[in-house]
Amino acid sequence: MRRPAFLLALLLGFVLQPARNLFAETPPLHTRIDQLVQASAVAPLAPLCDDATFVRRAYLDLWGVIPTAAEARTFLENKSPEKREQLVRMLTASERFNRRLVEFFDVMLMERRGDKHIKVAEWRKYLLDSIRENKPYNVLVREIIAEDGTDENLRPAAKFFLDRDSEPNLMTRDIGRILFGMDLQCAQCHDHPLVDDYYQRDYYGLYSFVNRTTVFDDKKAKKKFLAEKAEGDVDYKSVFTEQSGFARPRLPGEPSVSEPVLKLGDEYQVAPAKDVRGVPKYSRRQTLAKLIETSGNDRFRRNIANRLWALVMGRGLVEPVDFHHTSNPPTNPELLQLLADEIHANGYDIKAFLQQLLLTETYQRSLTSVNDSKDPKALQTLAQQLQEQQQQMEETVKQADVAYLQLIEAVTEVREEMLPVRAERDKARKAWSEAVKKSTAAAKPVAETTKKRDAEKKVVDALAPALAPAQQAASLLGDDKALTDAVQKLKARHDKHAAQLAALEKTLATQAAATKTANEAVAKSIAAFDVKRTELRKLDDKTRALEQQLAAADRERRQLVLQQKQLKERETWTQSLLSGLEARTQLASLRKQLTEAAEQRTAWNNQLALQQKQAQQLTAQLPQLQVAVKQAEKKQAEMLASIARMGDAQGELQSLQTQVTALGTQLKDEQLNQVAQQLVVKQQALTREMTAVEGQRAAHDRQVADAHQQLKATQDKLAELQKTSAQLQQRQEALVAKQTQLSEQLAAAEARRVEAEAQLEASLTEQNAVAALKPLAPEQLAWSMMQIGGVIEKQIASTQAALDKAKPLDEAAKKDETALAAREQEVITAALDKLASGVGSFVKLYGGGPGQPQNEFFATVDQALFVSNGGQIRSWFAIRAAQLNKEKEAAKLAEELYLTVLTRMPDADETRAVAEYLEGRDKDRQAAVEEMIWALATSVEFRFGH
Amino acid sequence: MKANYFCRSGEHAIARRGFLGGVVAGATGVVGGLTALASPAAAKELAAKQKRVLVVNMAGGLSQLESWDPKPGTDTGGPFRAIPTSVPGVHISELLPETAKQMHHLALVRSINTKENDHGKGRYFMLHGRRQMPGMDFPTLGAVSARALSPDGNGLPGHVIVTPGGSGGRGNDSAYLGPKYASMSLGNGKPPQNSERPKQLTESLDAARNAFRQQANDRFLLKRRTAKTDAYTYSYEQAKQLMARRDVFDVTKEPQKDQDRYGSHDFGRHCLLARRLLEQGVTFVQVSHSNYDTHNENFNFHIEQLGEFDSPFANLVNDIAERGMLDSTLIVVLSEFGRTPRINQNYGRDHWGTAWSICLGGAAVQRGAVIGKTNDNGTKVAERQVDGGHLFHTYLQALGLDSTGHFDIDGRPMPMADPAVSGISELIA
Lengths: 946, 429
What we know:
heterodimer; A: mainly alpha; two-stranded antiparallel ribbon; two-stranded antiparallel sheet; 28 helices; elongated; disordered N terminus; B: alpha/beta
């Protein structure tokens, strides 16, 4: 199965749109994911993991906790071929899964911040409700941006802004990082120096959506809300290049938004004032929320797709998850695009999406990679082909880059051009506001005068009709002095008031004229403002048109760059396979050479020892031989001496016999003749003896010669032996030097292998050829430790019992699935909320600081001290130890222990080790069990093995 | 078009694999470090070479006029005299007679203008070397020192803060450097949390369970071993070492004579603990002395407070020098700001970030140097104005670090100190 997959990858590697087009009907997402993984991987894919690993992995990813021993056993004993799919469906249908997603979104959106303006509990409740109703992710995001805290039901959603104090730089950075996967921090003060895709205008594009929003302290309600102004534009200026621009609100990679034109002075629903929360008619923050919800921005999609992938696969296709850019390309761009498109197409249904991920084979890969040998030639060919394809793309990429940069420059120019116009517009706005002030000032006396005039008029109107009849009466009555006086008085009054009225009318006319002028000035200022605004809008439209082109150019460039980078990535993977292979081969060859050298050395050593032994033996023989020589020589000398002596005796006998014979003849003495005769006999006997001795002489000489020869032969042999030994010794020394050299080479090769394997490990994980090693997150660790202690089951059971007693379900409800589900929700919520405090201490130690990125793995001494000596964990483990200790048989205890802590059966060695550990611990067996629980719970396997 | 304001050299390019390589190298470094520690001689050599930092934080805002920059006989000078020190020509307040005798080990910077009169912001600037900016967070001097200077393989934490009270625990002061370099607080000088073995668990049983853990690890690591698994197993080794060396945190293990000499009050004990920790190879130790926020009765308070500070601090400087650690140990006495030259109606002085001083010494700091000056009555900086950013660079340079360098955080280069300013180069010997 594996080899064809690898070949398929080889074949399809050259086709840019593989797999998908091979099928007329679109297969389910999980199949398409596997196809893309297979098409892009250059290494053989690891086999699927075993059931024990799968059940642990699925529980951890979907419920955030290891399975209990009973749950694990149920799964392991299930014989259905569809049991993995069944498990995924069962787990994702549960309230526990909802809680797991609350953890995910809480950490992602608030990064473990605590209580501030909105309590964490309220916020989590909001998330939980949202997840229970499977609120689409884009709607959730819309709410956390749009809500200002006034809607009681959705108030907790405002935590996203409120608890960051709505600080615009912080909001910009976190919206960029968390929702778009772009850490634009460096682009706050200048274009990102190292990232080609991060521009200062991107930063201020987002910034412009949020900089008008502030936290409003409602003293009466004793609550904080979001307020927003209708004005406030941003300029930016690079601290390096002094290049500046006029920022318009825009999502990354998109043109800036076109905003409605509101009449000057008519921008607010509620105008801001002291202790009055401003609410504009057009809200930029709401626009951002709406845009995110509806625009389907591709960076927004990719971000969430990648984060969810990272959640279950242990590694994002882009890592770090908040650093998407073309120099940090996805390990599989096509796959990320597929995921991004799919999550958009499915209406941002997080649960359905995760289910698909869980059903992939990619998710089920084993932790151990395939280690079969591969043909290096095929790999080299592949690497070369990938390299050539990259080169072929070079020119196209360059062109796309140039086109993109030209547009950027054009946009930047217009943005800069807008600055003076914007200044004039703002000046016009100021003039308008001055004019309005004047007009208001002018309108104020008109009202007063009108009031006075009206009063006066009332008097005149009352007096005037009375005057004529009174005058007539006075003239009729003639000299009625009293009447005449009265009439005169009346007239005087009338005239006075009439005059006053006339004066007031005149004033009013003047004032009205002034008001009219002021109003005209206002109208004029509005017109002037409108002229500038229109001018600005024209420029803005011009930019937007350019930005539209830019967005297209960006997409094209991005696609090309990513294609090229993917080729590069695959080449790197191939290289890492090759260097892993090479390192291993080299190591093996060096090891072999070393073994051979060692063998040779032993052989030579043996030979040398033998020779030495021989030499020793020979040397030992030497004195004996020397003695033999000496003895032979001595004997020879003795013999020669006796011959000489006999010769002398012969001579004397001869002369004596001569004398005796002469005397006998002379004296004719018979006796003398007889003596002479005897002497002759004696002489003859001596001669015989001498002849005999002479006869032995040769033998003696031979003996001497032999002894000499023997000695010399031995000495020669010894000399020869010493000579060959010396030679052997020399060769031996050379060999030792070579061995040292080989050992050094071996150490270097070993280091290279370690490095190559680390690269290989990274590359295999990147290809999704093997399951990523994902350490338990703080929450997972805490819940799993509790699970070991049985704390969770116990709490759920007691909560259930209490609820059933307090609010028993009637018979109908017991058969009603909705009612039962509601009860499950209620039980789980109450039980797990109660245990949440136990999670807090883990989060404090194992999580990043509040508001810091949370996905970094780190291991510190205070964590190890906490689990080694902390009371909380000890108390949990003690409960389980007491329970396990009831099992008297060591093998069964081992089984339950491993199933409880590591979700698998122990192997024979482990079972034996458990029995050995219990030996001699009869008196404190429970403590021994607890120690083993601790040891397994702190093992690397517990933290990483799933 | 993008401007080329940084050199686009290879070093600046983001190399994901380069980073992974770094992790691997780090992991092997850990192994080497452990073996190095196994030999006491090697550990000792390591300790002598290893750079360390002692920070004394004068919480609340120490008055420069009653300490490092006295102005006797002026309208702002207050009642105290200036006394000569062991450095000819350098005078400090008469409230610091013992410290005056150690001046030849120390140096002064008298021209600080942080423009920051808020406790929190002032402290942030002085300890992080950058102004507090919304949306951004930077690591403290302690975290930076621990990251840049702490040798791997020392069982002790690299960043320790002795707090006047509290229960201890990990601080949130390492920003992007990550919790590994965050401070470990010793609440009122007590040993780290959870460092004591539970009573029921004997040493041998603890060893047995650790051996069982090791066995389980060996089995797994045969299948899969990475920098992360190494870091994880190493944290338990570190815990074992720390527990074995728990005495390091016990100041009563110091000779009675020294305990008497440093005094039985908190600050004395904390200074002696600092000496002990530095000697044992802890990279960064911060102690604090409070409280100098003397809006009322500035002079009486300073008599009392500095009376407590002077002798233990002078002892500490002297002991560090006598033990041959001065060249490897940077000493900094800082505060969040100084106090106003103007004396208010309550005989107090108020917050003042405009013209104040710190004292520092050891490491590569030029002994006896005085940098900058204020005008005659101390109302403004007259010469060589610096702020928290310049000082931060200076500390790092005194420790032999290139303060213009950067940390590689997951492929993101993060400047070690504010790239917009530089250190006081004339202060570095």
